[in-house]
Amino acid sequence: MNQSREETKTDIATALLWELEKTPLKKMTIQQIAKRAGVSKQTFYNHFQDKESLIQYVYDTVIIPDFDEKRFPERFAPSYLRTLEAMKKHGEFMRQALLLEGQNDLKSYITAHCERFDVAYHTRMYGKELPESLRLATIYHANASSAMTFSWILGGFSTPAAELVHLVCQMRATGMEQTLADLYKLDD
């Protein structure tokens, strides 16, 4: 029976996470991942350009499915909390992936995704194009949120996830018009 394209991609992503239990991400090869997934190297390359694109796919599908750029959460805090919990569950993957350097590294990918997502999210929730001041505040908050999340991951998840959600939501509401600030209200 032939697997769907998405099932094969999921199998390859799962193989990367399993292989991480014995091989550091930096040293992991495409051959190792393909072998663990039970596919050929060519099949790997039919689905992913390189290891970095696979890492981004794992991030998109396993870590941040609530922040798909095609749909938006009604409330930020519950989605962000689920994301932080996934990051902690896959903490070794996140830590090692953030420490990789290169043209398509995960740090740059996350930062760019967060900016694009937040501008689109705020525009949708605002109901019209964002004024320049709100667009700039959105970009600033996206970058600050990314940096806070990176520090949290690389610091060993020492702050409880719910506390980080509170801090990020409080920061994101700062300087925003009420329509956007309301997106970051917490259900205390």
Features:
mainly alpha, 68% helix
Describe the structure.
The protein is mostly helical and 188 residues long. It contains ten helices and no strands. Helices cover 68% and strands 0% of the residues. 24% of the residues are buried. The mean pLDDT is 94.
Q: What structural class do you assign from the helix and strand content?
A: mainly alpha
Mean pLDDT: 94
Radius of gyration: 18 Å
Helix segment tally = 10
Helix content: 55-70%
CA-based shape: elongated
The low-confidence parts are: none
The ordered H/E elements are HHHHHHHHHH
Biggest β-sheet strands, sense, barrel? none
**Head-to-tail CA distance between termini:** 50 Å
**Could you tell me the number of beta strands?**
0
Strand content: under 5%
At a glance:
The protein has helices spanning 5-19, 30-37, 41-47, 51-63, 76-89, 91-99, 106-126, 132-154, 161-173, 178-181. It is 68% helix and 0% strand. The protein has 188 residues and is an all-alpha fold.
Secondary structure layout plus pairing:
Blueprint: H1 5-19, H2 30-37, H3 41-47, H4 51-63, H5 76-89, H6 91-99, H7 106-126, H8 132-154, H9 161-173, H10 178-181
Helix pairs in contact: 1-2, 1-4, 5-6, 5-9, 7-8, 8-9
